């Protein structure tokens, strides 16, 4: 196979791993989800990933996941792709969620490596193939071994790329060499799943990003890709570097991205609400630091 053609990524280039808004009582806030989705798309997001890590998928029910897809589908009205997180540690349940997401109106599926059980690579491959065979939507495979305990090895990705419905990867492997190996040998669309890699992966042929930080600064992150596309590589690097302090605070300061993203959105008066247990809200010191860095960035 040839190197990936990034001229038309399957779900767009700039994707947001959207938080799942909850009401103060902890129930699903569908109105808030619609308002947030509309803002994100208006601010440059070409796709929204629902019920991923940032969307607190482990603590939302199957019915809530489907309700969220339907609500966001209505809000964006074809202006952006909707990719539904459906991955679980159970192949049968993952297939059920995939079929439900398709029925609810998703455009694609985000399928994480099966976690906790630590299956070997042949079992990981079989899991993805069973989901891809059952679903009628294109799949993005989610490689995040730091959370799942199981890597999707590059050779496994290369074999899975032969399946017509396996079209993309969300890469949180921190294996930049492995990502380039898969890029050079398949047509998979590679999305950076770690915001510090957005520009670096894009520069070597990646499709774009699936970003948690885009919940907060969607337009700025989109501008990084736009500058690179325009041939202004120095400008793209400068814009990426400007975002680095906020990326670090949101993603590498000891709190999950769902917690930090909701902290900033709540401070800005945007739909977010609380996180669900076992997660806990950010403390005042962390919130002040996040908000201060956000304000410094948007003032540039």
Automatic annotation (TrEMBL):
Pyruvate binds at residues 54, 210. GO terms for cellular component: cytosol. It is found in: Cytoplasm. The keyword Cytoplasm applies. It holds the Pfam family DHDPS. One of its GO terms (biological process) is diaminopimelate biosynthetic process. Its EC number is 4.3.3.7. Pathway: Amino-acid biosynthesis; L-lysine biosynthesis via DAP pathway; (S)-tetrahydrodipicolinate from L-aspartate: step 3/4. Its main location: cytoplasm. One of its GO terms (molecular function) is 4-hydroxy-tetrahydrodipicolinate synthase activity. It comes from the Bacteria. The active site is at 142 (proton donor/acceptor), 170 (schiff-base intermediate with substrate). It catalyses: L-aspartate 4-semialdehyde + pyruvate = (2S,4S)-4-hydroxy-2,3,4,5-tetrahydrodipicolinate + H2O + H(+). Keywords: Amino-acid biosynthesis, Cytoplasm, Diaminopimelate biosynthesis, Lyase, Lysine biosynthesis, Schiff base. The record marks 53, 116 as: Part of a proton relay during catalysis. The keyword Transferase does not apply. Catalyzes the condensation of (S)-aspartate-beta-semialdehyde [(S)-ASA] and pyruvate to 4-hydroxy-tetrahydrodipicolinate (HTPA). HAMAP family: DapA (MF_00418). This is 4-hydroxy-tetrahydrodipicolinate synthase. The lineage of its organism: Bacteria, Bacillati, Actinomycetota, Actinomycetes, Kitasatosporales. The gene is dapA.
């Amino acid at each position: 196979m040839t190197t990936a053609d990034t001229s038309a990524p399957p779900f767009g280039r700039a994707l947001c791993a959207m938080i799942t808004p909850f009401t103060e009582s902890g129930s699903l806030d569908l109105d808030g989800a619609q308002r947030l989705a509309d803002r994100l798309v208006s601010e440059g997001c070409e796709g929204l990933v629902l019920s991923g890590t940032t969307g607190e998928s482990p603590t939302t029910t199957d019915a809530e996941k489907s309700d969220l897809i339907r609500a966001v589908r209505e809000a964006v009205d074809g202006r952006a792709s909707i990719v539904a997180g459906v991955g679980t540690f159970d192949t049968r349940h993952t297939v059920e969620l995939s079929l439900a997401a398709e029925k609810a109106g998703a455009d694609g599926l985000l399928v994480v490596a099966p976690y906790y059980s630590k299956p070997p690579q042949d079992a990981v491959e079989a899991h993805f193939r069973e989901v891809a065979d059952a679903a009628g939507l294109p799949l993005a495979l989610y490689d995040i071994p730091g959370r799942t305990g199981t890597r999707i090895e590059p050779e496994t990705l290369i074999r899975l790329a032969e399946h017509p419905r396996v079209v993309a990867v969300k890469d949180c492997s921190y294996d930049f060499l492995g990502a380039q190996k898969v890029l050079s040998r398949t047509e998979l669309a590679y999305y950076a799943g770690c915001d510090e890699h957005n520009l670096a992966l894009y520069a070597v042929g990646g499709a774009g990003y699936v970003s948690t930080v885009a919940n907060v600064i969607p337009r700025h992150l989109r501008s990084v890709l736009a500058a690179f596309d325009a041939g202004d590589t120095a400008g793209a690097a400068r814009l990426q570097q400007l975002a680095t302090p906020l990326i670090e605070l949101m993603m590498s300061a000891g709190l999950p991205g769902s917690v930090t993203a909701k902290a900033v959105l709540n401070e800005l008066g945007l739909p977010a609400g609380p996180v669900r247990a076992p997660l806990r809200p950010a403390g005042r010191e962390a919130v002040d630091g996040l908000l201060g860095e956000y304000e410094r960035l948007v003032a540039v």
